[in-house]
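Worked example

This section walks through a single chain of length 447. The input is the sequence exactly as stored; nothing has been trimmed or padded.
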Amino acid sequence: MVRRYFGTDGIRGRANRVITPELALKVGQAAGLIFRNGEHRHRVLIGKDTRLSGYMIENAMVAGFTSVGMDVLLTGPIPTPAVGMLTHTMRADLGVMISASHNPFDDNGIKLFGPDGYKLSDEVEASIEELLESDLTSQLAGSNDLGRAKRIDGVQDRYIEFAKRTLPRQLNLEDMRVVIDCANGASYKVAPGALWEMGADVIEIGTEPDGFNINKDCGSTNLAALKHKVREMRADIGIALDGDADRVLIVDERGHVIDGDQLLAVIAESWKDDGRLRGNGIVSTVMSNLGLERHLASIGLTLARTPVGDRYVLERMRADGFNVGGEQSGHIILSDFTTTGDGFVAALQVLAVVKRSNKPVSEVCHRFEALPQVLKNVRYRNGKPLENASVRSAIASAESRLGGHGRLLVRPSGTEPVIRVMGEGDDKALVEAVVNDVIGALTEVAA
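Given that input, the structure is written out below as tokens.
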């Protein structure tokens, strides 16, 4: 079945154009029908980030769920990982996060979680899509069986306590000056509050959401403000979350950016030393730097690679027993604690390593030299450029030239008509040359 609505991370698009009230209502009805099993009173938990369109989508989904007999628990703005956690701990039948993650405010999206707190499988999403194309009138609840909706208090405090419990009870963050950038998003209350409760000297930015400024010139997609504030305040560390707080990047005391690959190395080594790392390695995507793979090999650990997307990372982790995984972009999944990427919990693990080592972040979080990496895109109108003979020849030639000293990755985007070409290797000039050759071949075909 061709997926019309769901992408790699739920349903996402322009608010009130793609993500309309009509669609949100229908998703509520379809998902509610799928998860309405048994005679018990069913309920769904709905969280959201701080986008203006969240009000519209939230109310439409409430109408959808209650129309099929599900009670609704509304949390207000909380991080995506909090929705996964609360769905499970509060014994809800379904969880919903209304967010477009790191996208601008005028996009929005719908992420769904099963009763176990994990995102839905492809098969369940396909079943929901099938219902979205159907007339559901005959399956709506009777007048006496409609659901009820209510806002619930205390969920932010529950998430703060959950996050704090991921660290040893005796560990605190006293004498640490931390700048936290919440991207004017879902974590704007919980992340600064948790850091303060743990003893840190907290400096907040990106904590004044107005419905329009989520991810705007702040957060993990734009680190300029964080770097400036870290240097200005002579902070020990800067933490950048994205709009729904499922990803994180770090800025060290010098204002230098530390990406997800380095963070994975820090956490993996720490957990290995503590005897907590499972699977004798970690999981990441094909985009992770070859330097990470070589570094892990040097300390006896493996790197299992998956397609791009945190859902594929998590699937591999669950299938093969890994408990650390993530992406270069800062999605870090620590399955001992969470069922999805949790940027704040990952940041706490890094802070714990820094605190125990009594060394600066620049030293603690620089575990390997990243290989030069070049990424370029080619937009095409139609057809399948990667099946063209001249393109295949260019790719084969590029791979041959790189030999065993680098990698070439050529893949279509999952969300737009774009071919992405990534090369990396020890010789930057060679990497740029082979990427340009492939880009040239693709451009001729796409023109």
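What to look for: The mean pLDDT is 96.
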